Amino acid sequence: MPDFKIVVSDPQTKNVKELKVKVKVSDTIQEQPGEKEGKALPLAKLNENTLKALGADNLVTLQLNKQEGDKKVKIKVHFRVVVDNSVPDNEIWIDQGIAEKFGAPEFEAIAYRTKAFQLTVDQSKVSFLIGMKIGDTFEGSALGLPYKLKITGGSDNSGFPMRYDVSGPAKRKILLSGPPGFYPDEDGERRRKTIRGNTISTEVVQINTIIVR
Fold first, then answer.
1. Which CATH number fits domain 17-114: 2.60.120.20, 2.40.40.20, 3.40.50.740, 2.120.10.30?
2. Predicted structure pTM score
């Protein structure tokens, strides 16, 4: 079966705090199977004080802005947190493989609570999603996440979006006055567009979710 993309967003990230941190490679952190392919989040160790300063719980993002020639490059990686109070304040430890993405074993970066990320999974591992609808929730443990996730939308293998107000899994052509599926240029504008119903089928290749705490 083809790969399946799951976008996870955190609704509690308004006024996200940014913190300048020192990032180091640590041999106490094991590379997670599938992290290079975007199928799993890598791990990062930090202490309770740093986690509290970030206002985060289980997920943090590291961002490094650097100059490469005439271009400014932004490198951003999302991590699953492991709390370890042997890590100094304002310091984060990561594994060697992820450090290679940043281009150095030790560097300074901006850390903040993760707003959203995407994971790619084998559709056979999330077959339980088939038949679920927009608005349904499921355990994120299948993705290695300690949360419930609520389905908010998705799209099929042709790029047609799912609509919460259209029952079933099939494609339909309906008159729309707004998103998803149509973004009017003028007030009151309506167009007939093809969309997917609100139920996940084997034709759906991406779903959007939010974390439920």
1. 2.40.40.20
2. 0.87
